[in-house]
Amino acid sequence: MVLLPLCLLSFLGKAQNKALFEQGKEQYKAESYQEAINSWSKILQGGEHSAALYFNMGNAYYKLNQVGPSIYYYEKALQMAPHNSDIQHNLAFAQNATVDAIEPLPKTFFAKWNEKISGLMGYDGWAWFSVGAVFLFAFCFLNYYFGVQSQRKRLFFAGSLVSFLVLMGAFFMAFRTFHSFQNNREGIVFATVCEVKSGPRMKEATTFKLHEGTKVTILAEEDNWYRISLADGKDGWLPEGDLKEL
Fold first, then answer.
1. Which of 160, 183, 206 represents a domain boundary (last residue)?
2. Segment 47-54 long-range contacts (CB within 8 Å, at least 24 positions apart)
3. pLDDT tens digits, residue range 63-103?
4. Range of the domain at 223
5. 129 domain residue, yes or no
6. Which residue, 161, 183, 205, sits at the end of a domain?
7. Distances (CA, A) of 221 to 48, 104, 200, 240
8. CA distance 160 to 156
């Protein structure tokens, strides 16, 4: 008897979120961008997340010339739909509006290869690929084990061997991408301009400045400070309020 009320509440929540999403779209079309953001923010507050929702919020913030929030929400959308060309295109436009020009350090061949392979699928994609490889291995091995004809047995033995190697590779990539996702903390600078300090205190020397919309890697936390690094190798400390973690 408890399941029925829970299902009803879930259904009503989804219906309400759909109405809010459509309301935000109409407000966006009417160029009421802040009102659209307010509508979509209510969906996020309710715990629902989607690439489409983040993408639309990024668009609305971009229309308001708020570079930091627009890049933040485009990046959030890209996390959920990493191969979506519309998100990538709009993110590139927003990044062109940033002040900081950061030249990334050159990557080794292995790092480039690893990034390219990992980027083919997210950790969930590699996990599903591993499941498919398990079924393929089981199919080939069972046909080999119970087979009668020697030629078919050799064929399915080779198939089971190849599928096992594929399974191990896919499992390794699933684990590696998940570990990277869990440990690679990034954030977007929200302050118009902020001073990066040499230590986690305001009295420390300023090493360089950053501007709204710059993407950073979060290395550590101490009190209300983040230790961050940039793609060009620079690092320092920022107050917690100057950036928002992705």
1. 183
2. 48/13, 48/14, 48/17, 49/76, 49/80, 50/80, 51/77, 51/78, 51/80, 51/81, 51/84, 51/87, 52/21, 52/77, 53/21, 54/80
3. 999 999 999 999 999 888 888 899 999 999 999 888 877 77
4. 185-245
5. yes
6. 183
7. 28, 23, 9, 9
8. 6
User: In angstroms, rounded to a whole number, what is the distance separating the alpha carbons of residues 137 and 164?
Assistant: 6
Confidence of residue 10 (pLDDT cuts 50, 70, 90): very low
Structural domains in the chain (count): 3
In tens, the pLDDT along 107-156 reads 676 666 666 766 666 667 778 888 888 888 888 888 888 877 888 888 88
What value does the mean pLDDT take over residues 15-28?
A: 84
Domain harbouring 42, CATH code: 1.25.40.10
- Cβ–Cβ < 8 Å for 118, 177: yes
Can you name the residues that pair with 239 across neighbouring β-strands?
225
Residue predicted with more confidence, 116 or 184: 184
